Amino acid sequence: MAQQNVKLALIDLSGTLHVDDQPTEGAVDALKRLRQHGVKVKFVTNTTKESVGSLFARLRKIGFELEREEIYGSLAAAAEYVRKNKLNPYYLLTDDARTDMPPDDPTRPKDSVVVGLAPERFCYEHLNEAFRVLRQKSDNSNVQLVAIHEGRYYKAKDGIALGPGCFVKGLEYSTGVSAVCIGKPNEYFFRSALPDGVAVEDCVMIGDDPIDDCQGAMRVGMKGYLVETGKYQPEMYTEENRPAVSGIFATFGDVVQHIIANGQ
Q1: Count of domains in the chain?
Q2: Looking at the predicted structure, is the pLDDT value of residue 93 above 50?
Q3: Is residue 225 part of a domain?
Q4: Which long-range contacts (CB under 8 A, 24 or more apart) does 138-141 make?
Q5: d(CA 90, CA 183)
Q6: From the CB of residue 226, how many other CB atoms can be counted at a distance below 10 Å?
Q7: 163 and 98, same structural domain?
Q8: 147 and 103 in contact (C-beta within 8 Å)?
Q9: In a shared domain, residues 195 and 218
Q10: Cβ atoms of residues 246 and 203 within 8 Å
Q11: In-domain check, residue 66
């Protein structure tokens, strides 16, 4: 067996380990094998449709063995950003995701907009309210448009589905306010996910998004392994224009086998 080099695997969730309420092929057993090989894991996710508690319960229910503290999401990072900057946002979030965020202050005017994946909020009424918050404050340098992430699309059980990125870009276009992006592929997000004492060169990132997951991690010095079980659609690429990542694998289990066999 090759010498073990990988100490920590950062693992995406939706599209990599599961799609809605179904694990991807062999993922439950593959995660066990990775742990048995001595590789520590942390689940890094841009999921914003549900709270960390709901996500943890879903993963346990469908067979994954993990601790809630092993999940590091852009929703939690965004909540910390709101607290640190003392913002009073208008939230474009689901009701469940909203429970992870700081409460709003009815005694203060709205000074920002926070956007996550919230399909039922992406209608004219709510988007127009967000526009007005940003537009009314356009002369205030402190106004902020906070994108928990800018995902273009994601894998759902009935196929690929539109992500929040286009709504963020639409608000940027109409208001002239540039968004602050919190989650993947932000360099801060990847670095803040690492435990103390773990170097980036000892880590790999495994995900289904060639840009947000793999290339984002590669920019900070990690390997980025892409799986084909989620949003990545290999049939849309030729051999010449395939994503420039560290490796492309059919399933999460195939990545785990590669790590065990090669130590990287």
Answers
A1: 2
A2: yes
A3: yes
A4: 138/175, 138/176, 138/177, 140/111
A5: 19
A6: 26
A7: yes
A8: no
A9: yes
A10: no
A11: no
State whether 38 and 95 are in the same domain. no
Where in the sequence is the domain holding 108, given as residue range(s)?
Answer: 86-181
d(CA 264, CA 258): 7
Predicted pLDDT at 29: 98
Does one domain contain both 155 and 210?
no
Range scoring the smallest mean pLDDT among 1-10, 118-127, 180-189: 1-10
Cα 106 to Cα 88: distance, rounded to the nearest angstrom: 9
Tens-place pLDDT, residues 59-83? 999 999 999 999 999 998 899 999 9
What CATH code is carried by the domain that includes residue 108? Answer: 3.40.50.1000
Entry pTM: 0.82
- Cβ atoms of 171 and 179 closer than 8 Å: yes
- Say what the pLDDT of residue 154 is: 86
Whether 54 is covered by a domain: the verdict is no
Same-domain status, 173 and 204 = no
Residue type, 170: G
- 18-19 and 22-23: which strand pairing? antiparallel
Structure tokens at 61: 């229910």
Instruction: Point out the domain boundary residue: 164, 181, 198.
Output: 181
- Which tokens hold the place of 228? 């084909």
Q: What is the pLDDT of residue 2?
A: 43
How far is it, in rounded angstroms, from Cα 102 to Cα 62? 29
Which residue has tokens 């928990």?
148
Q: Domain boundary at 159, 181, 203, which?
A: 181
Q: Give mean pLDDT, residues 52-60.
A: 94
Cα distance between residue 76 and residue 64, in whole Å: 21
- Cβ atoms within 10 Å, residue 200: 17
DSSP state of 62: T
Residue 1 lies in a domain: no
